[in-house]
Amino acid sequence: MVYLDYSATTPTNKEVLESFNKVVMEYPGNANSLHKLGTKSLHLLEASVKQVADLMGVNKEEVIFTSGASEANNLAIMGVVNKYKNRGKHILTTKLEHSSILETLDYLKKEGYEIEYLKLDKNGHVDLEDLKNKVKEETVLVTIAQVSSEIGIIQDVNKIGSILKNYPKVIFHVDGTQAVGKIDVNLDNIDLYSFSSHKIYGLNGVGALIKKRHIELEPIIHGGKSQTIYRSGTPTHALCASFAKALKLVLENSQEKMNHVLKLNRKIRESLETMNDVIINSPIDCVPHILNISIKGIKPETLLHSLAESDIYISTKTACASNTSMSLSVYELTHDKVIANSSIRISLSYLTTDGEIDYFLETLKKKIKELRFKEGE
Amino acid sequence: MNRVILIKYGELTTKKGNRKIFINTLYSNILKKLKGLNVNIFKDMSRMYIEYEDKDQDIIIKNIGEIFGIHAYSIAYKSESNIDSIKKTISMVLKENLDEHDYTFKVETKRSDKRFEPNSVECNHLFGGYILKSFKNLKVNVHEYDVLVHIEIRNDYSYVYLNEYKGLGGYPVGTLGNCLAMLSGGIDSPVASYLALKRGIKLDLVYFEAIPHTSLEAREKVINLARKLYPYSGDIKLIIVPFTKLQEAIYKNCLENYSITIMRRMMYRIMEKLTIKYKALGIVNGESIGQVASQTLTSMKVINSVTNLPVIRPVACFDKLEIIKIAKKIDTYDISILPYEDCCTIFVPKHPIINPRIDTCLEMEKKFDYEDMIAEILNNLLIINIDNNTNNEYKDIL
């Protein structure tokens, strides 16, 4: 099998799974219970919170465990707009965001919020002048992904955050789902930050929202204090511990991992550049783990299924948005409907080998030839 | 790799006669703290140098930040002690640490090797000139500078570094003998222990428990507090004193308003016995003047009169908020405020006496045979060793 869909989900690290199993078997108490078993689970939960906080460079009161990044994104947006209703109804974002951002904002639009999309330059970076122009008295929130999930565009969220520091009433949320474990994360200028376990070789079903101390949120799941007052429900201490473990592991030797992925990325690029009608959508300064390409004249789904026959797994757009036809992100970047309709995403990992890439490139060439012939018929 | 962590001793330098003991204790404390890492540590009378593997830098820096007796430390680049090598090293340091932006700088040279030519002031000019020539984005400003380039020329090697981190200060733990610290589970006693450690006192900890009036959770809480002290103390013993029978006897035989006073006197008596058993020179506790009835000066006098040992009360003159600030810094505060009863909070009289009299105490203490009870207590101590294993409780999980 050649798995090239790591940005959809990553295989669980064995050590992470072992942590999870150990906690499930040895820490049966509910962390909210006051007796000994409860306290034991609570202490482990606290240690997990502390580890995540330390690794992210924040305080332990600033970590809110959620069921994943989608919930963290929803909590960030809904929590802010409900808490700061009086500040205004204007929100800024980009068209590169994940569906859990865009759909939540669509919902708010129906509720009377004004959603504005920031201009991007030719490499997909937010136009900082446009940002300054668009921020206004009624702006309550700016939400931007640090790394876009379909194309891999890296936003300078540190710079954006430092600009937004001049507007103390504007809250800055960053979706870091595709950034953590891939690039350096510095949360100094960021108010809220979402990320998830299953993108960093952890288990599915747990994520976190980092919420700086000076920000308040209205919970979307009510029920009293649990791990935090911002998110109720019995704390999933086994998942949280496994998440803390996954985060620690993914950040180990990050430079070496990065260099390896970068090498693979360059190898694929070089090879694709020699193929006819293959367009590389991801600009060169993207995160090397994600490579978005379009193959003119071939339906992405057809290619996806055809590669799957050879045990190669890639993605058309992001897994979360795959059932609508055109890639909004790719269209936003290229303004070309043909390209946006035929984009596929190859996503790599430090686990990906040279051999896998060779096999993928060889098979891709073959499949394109076959499909062209079929479609040409 | 030619990077080392350079350590400055600070307060040690004032202790001329005992300097060797201080340095050797610090050396062995650092060695213990960095156990398991591939490091080489070199020491001389004014500096220590740690050679390490690149990947361990963060963890070493974190650990060095928890060791008492270090005034400051830096990540320094090692060079041969000659002008050309030092220039090359300066160039490398600046390239690795600065970006393309404009900065002002100052050079500060120290020569411990006074035979080295030219002298320090001339070195400043020489190396400053070299930097000016080699880096277009750097300008000299000796009064207001962004970057201070430190150059230390020593006998064998020279060192170049930019940033200096502040160490914890104090004396290396162990240089000033052993004490026993009373740890209750409250906010004050862990802070008092931390401050005693800072003065170079090696500690073991004593916790009085009265099961079932106090719970196992309360014991767990104290163990967790001891774990928080571990990074500063190194291996540490937690002595658990079974106090139930004696405490019950006090409440049966003494006036209610005197119960806390008598209880504290009993605790001090036990502490004195423990110092003999564990070869300690004194008692450390978290008493703070005026905070509760047993901590008025009259109470302290009456309680303290049962022992001649030095009783060190590091937070005696601190405000509660000052204590809390340190408790938060050493991360004991959140544990301390967990709501479990300890020996000092159970059976609290409605109106504890704030001006107790010694003769009244002595009279009440005649009513029961506490000597026997203390002897029995000393035979039933429970010892928990807080070491690297217990401290890293979740190492299999997290």
Keywords:
heterodimer; A: 377 residues; Aspartate Aminotransferase, domain 2; Aspartate Aminotransferase, domain 1; 2 domains; 12 strands; B: 398 residues; alpha/beta; Rossmann fold; 9-stranded mixed beta sheet
Summarize the structure.
With 377 residues, chain A is an alpha/beta fold. Chain A has helices spanning 14-26, 36-56, 69-83, 99-110, 128-134, 157-164, 237-251, 254-273, 300-309, 328-334, 337-341, 354-376; strands spanning 2-3, 63-66, 90-93, 114-117, 139-145, 171-175, 192-196, 207-211, 278-280, 290-295, 312-313, 343-347. Chain A has 12 helices and 12 strands.
Largest interface, Cβ cutoff 8 Å: A-B, 15 and 10 residues
The CATH architecture assignment of the largest domain in chain B turns out to be 3-Layer(aba) Sandwich
Do you know the CATH topology of the largest domain in chain A?
Answer: Aspartate Aminotransferase, domain 2
In what range is the share of β-strand residues of chain A?
5-15%
